[in-house]
Design goal:
mainly beta, 716 residues
């Protein structure tokens, strides 16, 4: 049995051997000039993959901006094959996924927590984003660790010659971004800071409310979030470049109540959560046909949720009765990883990628609580009895090791036939157990005509991290846990294919998929705000899922006008035999989804946008039968999980951008966005109620009305 050091040595030896062989072959075929390598690289980039969407930073920074802030995840939610989950949340449910099975990479570093304010908007600051690759199927072998999608975000290098920046102010946050040279033509920086300013408003508002209430009860609290992105780039030579990247995101939510009267109450809650990621990557052109990228990184994601509650009173004799409770819950996952990737062009018809990675994971969750009762107090002047104290805690720590090797070859088999074949070999060691999973990948593209092609792909993915949650919404109390003998890794297999037609200014795509998922976890414990931490595997049952469907896209694009129509037809099912023996529809089993997206630029100063969204309603579980007993009691029976459907969802969003140069080349911009223009209250939840005759009826409730937002920005 190898230990961790031997694993690292084995992979390091494999990397060096592969690099040495490849370099020797490059020397034998060193006839390809640099410009031709670049042309081939761009030509062959992602040519065969199905389910791939590439967005640049300018695209992500334009359009409807809910709350005045462009959001990457909300842009991806518009695409076919993607369900958004709860309204306004940054959920991403891809091809029937669970939302916790998406791989988010920021400059190559995996992030576990990608949202702020409980999921209302994502952690990615679009001011510093250069481009984004989004995969729904056809995953290349260089990606691994999640089942359903890959969101690969690359931040921009700073300008090597001039200083530029941007200052923006939206409904809930403000942003500033600055870039420029440190050493001209050699070293640059790019820094972006985003901070909410809601606490600036809430603090004086709460103070005013306390003054109006006479100081009792006294309410306090506030919310603030931060994002800091930094990148330094240094070019040693045309062949050698170093990037140092940093990200820190944090949320801080506090609330409290203090009342001092005959019955005094002191209550406070505290919640902090966020992520940190730091990385260094070195890119080196070993030869004209061989390029390598070495990445080392550290990341941390976690949360701390707690509350303190104290209530007490004195009777007429002065005897004191009090109750004190304190509870604190923390969860964190820390990663330290290294990855070495190589790009090799043995000839003009082939692009080979290969590499290795190794990641050390540390999972840490804990809960501490204390309760003191002094219900039999003493009158003034008498000795108080010792209070009853109950305190304790529990938690769980895991260390895990995850190495992987991969190789993929994109090759022109014929002038109109391209194949990308690859294999990823992943391993995971935790809790005394080791899993080894081969993950084959293949994608084929056939150019039937100049602007018409068909593609087919197969992928197998393995996921070794589980998100432990007692609720289906994203909360700071959710905790990441590794695969264990009681909760083995999740595995998915997906076949996808379609036809793609791209005449001038138009794009017509039809793509279908069939996907199976094994090892999915479903919570079967009691309703709770905090998920279980110790022996958590016993509170979850393992099952499987299936998803299949088709996506349709029709787009028209000119410099002034862009129109797109997306339609998704989808079936998503789950089966957990521990509590239901038959397949049942998933919560996000939206049979039909339609998105209409448009942009019109009537002049150099104006841009107009619209999004119309429709999908069949999400599913919920409601009682299907009521049994009445003697003496007026009754009991609810449930026929199947997610046996009811909410009303269909639809809304219209519009936005207007206005930009003009003001002085010395500076650009002043305004964005007016209106979310849910016709104020349709889409159902957020539903429940059974009784009417005047005592009959049960289903009632759905909407929470999100029309939301207008005005934001301003200054580019310099």
């Amino acid at each position: 049995m190898f230990n961790k050091i031997q694993y690292l040595a084995l992979f390091a030896a494999a990397i060096l051997a592969a690099a040495n062989v490849s370099a020797q072959e490059v020397e034998q075929h060193d006839t390809l000039n640099t410009s031709y390598v670049t042309a081939v690289k761009e030509k062959m980039r992602n040519t065969t993959q199905t389910g791939l969407t590439r967005l640049d930073g300018d695209k992500l920074r334009s359009g409807v901006a809910v709350f005045g802030t462009p959001d990457i995840i909300k842009s991806l939610q518009m695409l076919p094959g993607v369900a958004a989950g709860n309204e306004l949340m940054s959920g991403l449910y891809v091809h029937g996924g669970d939302g916790n099975d998406n791989l988010f990479l920021l400059d190559g570093v995996p992030l576990y927590n990608i949202s702020h304010f409980g999921g209302f908007f994502s952690s990615f600051n679009t001011d510093v984003v250069d481009n984004l690759d989004f995969y729904k199927s056809g995953f290349p072998a260089r990606y691994g660790g999640r089942l359903s999608s890959v969101v690969d975000v690359e931040t921009s290098e700073g300008n090597m010659n001039e200083y530029h920046g941007n200052v923006s102010l939206g409904l809930i946050d403000g942003r500033i971004q600055v870039e420029g040279p440190i050493i001209k033509d050699r070293t640059s920086f790019n820094v972006g800071l985003r901070r909410s300013w809601m606490d600036v408003v809430t603090v004086p508002a709460i103070a005013y409310a306390n003054w109006r209430n006479g100081g009792s009860p006294k309410v306090n609290g506030g919310y603030a979030m931060w994002d800091l992105n930094g990148r330094i780039t240094h070019r040693f030579s045309p062949k050698s470049k170093l990037n140092a990247n940093f990200y820190w995101g944090s949320d801080d939510l506090k609330a409290g109540l203090d009342e001092d009267s005959d019955v005094y109450v002191d209550m406070s809650t505290r919640t902090t959560w966020g992520s940190l990621a730091a990385s260094v990557n070195w890119e080196y052109q070993y030869a004209k046909k061989l390029k390598g990228k070495l990445l080392g990184y550290y990341s941390r994601s976690g949360s701390d949720v707690g509350y303190t509650f104290e209530v007490g009173s004195r009777d007429d004799s002065g005897a004191l009765s009090s109750l004190f409770m304190d509870d604190d819950n923390t969860c964190a996952v820390r990663d330290a990883g290294i990855k070495y990737d190589f790009d090799w062009y043995p000839d003009s018809f082939q692009h080979v990628r290969f590499g290795a990675s190794a990641v050390y994971h540390h999972y840490n969750t804990s809960r501490a609580y204390e309760q003191r009762n002094a219900l039999l107090g003493a009158a003034d002047g008498e000795a108080a009895p010792e209070p009853e104290v109950n305190k304790g805690g529990d938690g769980k720590k895991y260390d895990a090791f995850e190495p992987a090797l991969y190789a993929e070859d994109e090759i022109f088999i014929a002038y109109n036939l391209t194949l990308n074949a690859g294999l990823r070999l992943s391993m995971f060691t935790s809790s005394g157990s080791t899993w080894l999973n081969p993950e084959p990948r293949a994608a084929l593209k056939w150019m039937i005509a100049k602007n018409f092609c068909t593609k087919l792909s197969y992928t197998r993915m393995s996921q070794y991290a589980h998100l432990v949650s007692a609720m289906y919404i994203e909360l700071p109390t959710n905790s990441w846990m590794p695969s264990t003998p009681g909760a083995p890794p999740m595995i998915s297999d997906q076949i996808a294919g379609g036809f793609y037609f791209t005449p001038d200014h138009f794009r017509f795509n039809i793509e279908g998929w069939y996907k199976t998922m094994d090892g999915l976890l479903s919570y079967n414990g009691a309703n709770a705000f905090y998920p279980p931490l110790v022996n958590w595997e016993t509170s979850f049952t393992s099952g499987k899922g299936k998803s299949w469907g088709a996506e349709f896209e029709a787009s028209y694009e000119t410099p002034k006008l862009e129109l797109s129509a997306y339609y998704t037809l989808c079936w998503t099912w789950r089966q957990f035999e521990a509590y239901y023996p038959f397949p049942f529809p998933d919560r996000n089993d939206n049979r039909h989804k339609i998105n209409l997206v448009g942009t019109w630029r009537p002049g150099k100063h104006w841009s107009l946008y619209f999004n119309w969204n429709y999908h069949t309603g999400n599913r919920i579980t409601l009682p299907s039968h009521v049994i009445y007993f003697e003496k007026g009691s009754s009991s609810m029976l449930y026929q199947a999980p997610y046996n009811s459907k909410l009303p269909d969802y639809h809304r219209l969003d519009v936005g207007v951008d206005f930009k003009t140069q003001v002085w010395n080349g500076k650009t002043l911009g305004f964005n007016l966005s209106i979310y849910n223009v016709y104020n349709h209250l889409n159902a957020s939840f539903a429940m059974l109620e009784t009417d005047a005759n005592g009959e049960y009826i289903g009632m759905a409730y909407g929470l999100v009305p029309i939301i207008p937002t005005l934001s301003a920005s200054l580019k310099f």
